[in-house]
Amino acid sequence: MIDEDEDGTPAEFPGGPIKYRKWILKQLEESEKEIEASEVRGNCKFSFVIDTSGKVTNIKICTLSNTYAEVLIRRIYAQSPLWKPAVSTTNGKTEQKICQTIVFGNNH
Asked: Phi/psi class of residue 39: alpha, beta or left (left: φ > 0; alpha: ψ in -120 to 50)?
């Protein structure tokens, strides 16, 4: 797995970080009524791994687990397109852990 301090190329969503942000916002907007109905509020911190094939794996919910936020995060990332995998200068393609936070109840 690539470390933040290691030389190499990090995993990348197709089209880069701006496309990633647009994709996440679109997924949240499509689920807006469900989010409001669930009344989930707060920061949902989670992590996932981009494996060597570019697939999202190992989703771990750190905050707001056992809520609709967890259900939604898992559903969104199960539908993620393949990422460009991380490349280590010493090992070639490698896994990378990514940590994220999505704010619920604050107009995302």
From this structure: left
What is the reported pTM? 0.88
What is the token pair recorded at 11? 């995993």
DSSP state of 84: B
Tokens of 49: 């791994």
Euclidean distance between the first and final Cα of the chain, in Å? Answer: 30
Q: How confident is the model at residue 108 (pLDDT cuts 50, 70, 90)?
A: very low
Which residue segments constitute the domains of the chain, with CATH numbers given? 8-104 (3.30.2420)
Residue 95's SS3 state is coil
Pick from 7, 17, 26, 3: nearest CA to 84: 17
Question: Is 2 exposed, middle or buried, given 0-12, 13-18 or 19+ CB atoms closer than 10 A?
Answer: buried
Which residues, other chains included, contact 41 with Cβ-Cβ below 8 Å and sequence gap of 6+?
A: 104, 105, 106
